[in-house]
Amino acid sequence: MPYRSKYNTMLYISRPHREEGMIGKQQYQALSEFRFRLAEFLHFSESAAQAAGITPAQYLLLLHLRGFPGREWGTVGELAERLQASHQGTVALVQRCERNGLVSKRRSRTDARCVEIRLTPRARGLVQRIAKRHAEALAQMDLVFSAASAAGARVGRRTPHRKVDTAGQG
Which ranges in the chain belong to alpha helices (H)? Predict the structure, then answer.
C-alpha cells in the first residue's frame, strides 16, 4: 500500500526482489574475512603505537593532524569528529599529547575564536615511522578489500523504484 501524504507529492517506493539483497555463502565468507583482517589490522595498529611509546588514541590524533586535508592543523571539534569521540575526551587527549611534547596549540591568526592544534617536529617523525608500517600492512590486505568490496557490491545493488502519485489523496 502506498504511503498517503496530505501534501501534493510524488513518492518513490522500492519494490524488493527476492534475489536482490540476499547474501550467499561467498559474501558471508568475504565479509567474515574482511572483519577478521580488520580486527587483525587494528590489533597491529595498537601494538605499533605502543611499541613507539604512545597510546593508540594518541597515534590516531597525530595521524589525523598529519592527514588533515589542505592544512597542517586541526581544531578540537574537527579532531573529535575524526576520532568519533566526545569534545571533552578529545580535549583531554590533546592535553596529554601537549604534555608529552607531541602537539602544540595556538590561537588562529584569522579567527581568534579558533585554536589550532599542530604537530611538533618530534610527533611528525613519530607518526611517519608508525604510518609507514601501517602502509606496508595495508598493502598486504588488497585482496581482502577487493573481495569485501565485491561482496558488498553484489548485495548492495539498488532496488528498482516505481513512481507513486499521491496527489489528491489524503
Answer: 25-51, 56-66, 76-83, 87-99, 121-139, 142-155
